[in-house]
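Something for you to look into today, if you have time. Could you write out one complete protein record for me, on any chain you like? Leave the record below and I will have a look.
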Amino acid sequence: MRTRPFLATLLLLVIAGPAGAGKAPETRTAIFAGGCFWCSEADFEKLPGVIAVESGYTAGKTVNPTYEQVSAGSTGHTEAIRVSYDPKTVSYPQLLDHFWRSIDPTVKNRQFCDIGTQYRSGIYWQNEDERQAAEASRASLLASGKVPRVETEIAAASAFYPAEEYHQDYYKKNSVRYAYYRLSCGRDARLKQVWGGG
């Protein structure tokens, strides 16, 4: 008689599978601004552990801004991305390292051929751990001597507004136009100057 509960439990385990089976991976988000969000989105989606990247606007004062408003430079926003990632595969400090190498941190209120506060670079922390990691990462970068200065802002995250649908995955939807823009803007050439060929 004692074997029945055991057999019933065993049957349930076989049907249900191991504990945690079928659970979705933990997902966290990080917010960065690295100039043109088409390029930032493309750069981050290549990174293992990144689940999705969304283009948008942040660090401004206008509610629900449009691309036209942001690109005019009157809303205070910067083009940004919200990265969804699996922290078991890629850590926030690793995202920071990837971010630095995808931008030119030595310039203020511009990135590559795009000029204005709407193209400023930034790290927007969402909790104290992220703030400390971002500041430590900046200090480490300066101490390394790889760059003479860092103009990238580090600030508390504020509202993130997703960009219009046609901006999402632009590099996939309009690959030829995107490739021409990236080349003519000199992004990769400048990145090679700042960070070297490696």
Summary: The chain has a mean pLDDT of 91.
